[in-house]
């Protein structure tokens, strides 16, 4: 049991700066369970990514998944969020 306390103490000393940031900002969440749970469906289906056709296709899929999960995490409708972003991006390209 003493070894456990020594390990915890070493961890706290080695990560002191990060732990202090966490304590200073009330918006920080100590757990990353939300992020891990949101990507779980994609990690479970990663075998399917072999069929993206190319590294560029895989990168495009990852970008879309990232946008969808960001929308969900922010409480937004993913379809409307993607529609807004893609419509706005096309308008900016045309006017640029």
UniProtKB/TrEMBL annotation:
Cross-referenced InterPro entries, in alphabetical order?
Answer: IS66_C, Transposase-related, Transposase_IS66_central
**Residues of the Transposase IS66 central domain:** 10-59
Q: Which Pfam families is this protein grouped with?
A: DDE_Tnp_IS66, DDE_Tnp_IS66_C
Q: Which domain of life is it from?
A: Bacteria
Q: Where is the Transposase IS66 C-terminal domain?
A: 66-91
The name on file for this protein is Transposase IS66 family protein
């Amino acid at each position: 049991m003493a070894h456990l306390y020594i390990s915890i103490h070493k961890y706290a000393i080695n990560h002191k700066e990060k732990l202090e940031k966490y304590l200073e900002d009330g918006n920080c969440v100590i757990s990353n369970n939300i992020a891990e749970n949101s990507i779980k469906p994609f990690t479970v289906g990663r075998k399917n990514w072999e069929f993206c056709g190319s590294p560029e296709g895989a990168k495009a899929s990852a970008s879309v998944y990232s946008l969808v999960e960001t929308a969900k995490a922010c409480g937004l409708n993913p379809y409307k969020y993607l529609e807004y972003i893609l419509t706005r991006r096309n308008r900016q390209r045309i006017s640029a």
